[in-house]
C-alpha cells in the first residue's frame, strides 16, 4: 500500500470523526485497485487519480456521518440508489459492518463490477442488484423496507425523491448527496418530497476535505407512507418531475 494513500485516508476520515482498522484501510486500497483495473476496460468513473478517489469518492461517501450521526451504531439496512461504482454504499459498508446494504444500479456491467468488489473484499450482508428504481420501488420486497436510502446519483431533487423515498420505511431517512448551489433546486424539490411522504429536516453544508468542493447532504425523514401511485413507471420521474 502506498504511504500517501494511508496518510490521506486517515487525514480525511479524521475530519469526519472516523478511525480505521488495518483491515478496513486494506479493503479501501484493494477497492481502489479493483476500480482502476476495471476502469481500463469500462467507464466506471472519470475520477481515477489516487488523491481524487480518496477524497471525492471514499471520504465523500463517508461524509454521511455529518448528517446522520447515528449511522452504524445499530443493526439497520440501507439501499444505495444509482450506486454506479459503489458509492456511497460500499465505503459505508466497510466502515459500518452492522449495516445491511443493497446496491441498486440500472446498468448490468456495473453490477458485475460490484459483485467482484463484494467478493474480493469479503463483504457480507451486502448485495448488488440490477434494475430501475421505479420498478424496485413498486416491488413489495423492497418498497418501504429500509431504514436508510442514500443516493449520489445525478438528478434533480424532485426526481431523486420519487426514486428514493418509496424505499424508506416510515420513520426512516433518505439522504441525497448534492454539490454546488442547490437553493433553487430545493425550492422545487420540497414540494415533491412532501408528496412522496417525506419532510426535509436538514441540509448539511460543508467543504469536502482535501478539496475546495462545496457539498450538501439533504436529509429527508419519511413521515408517512408513499402513495401507491409512486414511483411512476420507468423513465417518467426523470422526464416529468413532480
Q: What does this molecule look like?
A:
This protein is of the alpha/beta class and 242 residues long. It has a single domain (3-239), classed as Vaccinia Virus protein VP39 (Rossmann fold, 3-Layer(aba) Sandwich), CATH 3.40.50.150. 38% of the residues lie in helices and 23% in strands. It contains nine helices and seven strands. It has helices at residues 3-14, 22-39, 50-62, 89-95, 108-120, 133-136, 157-164, 183-195, 236-239; strands at 76-81, 99-105, 126-130, 146-151, 168-179, 198-207, 214-222. It has a seven-stranded mixed beta sheet, with helices on both faces. It is globular and about 50 Å long. The model has no long low-confidence stretch (mean pLDDT 95).
Q: Count up the domains.
A: 1
Structural class: alpha/beta
CATH fold-level assignment: Rossmann fold
Gap from first CA to last CA: 47 Å
Indicate the CATH architecture: 3-Layer(aba) Sandwich
Major sheet description:
7 strands, mixed
- Based on CA atoms alone, the radius of gyration comes out at 17 Å
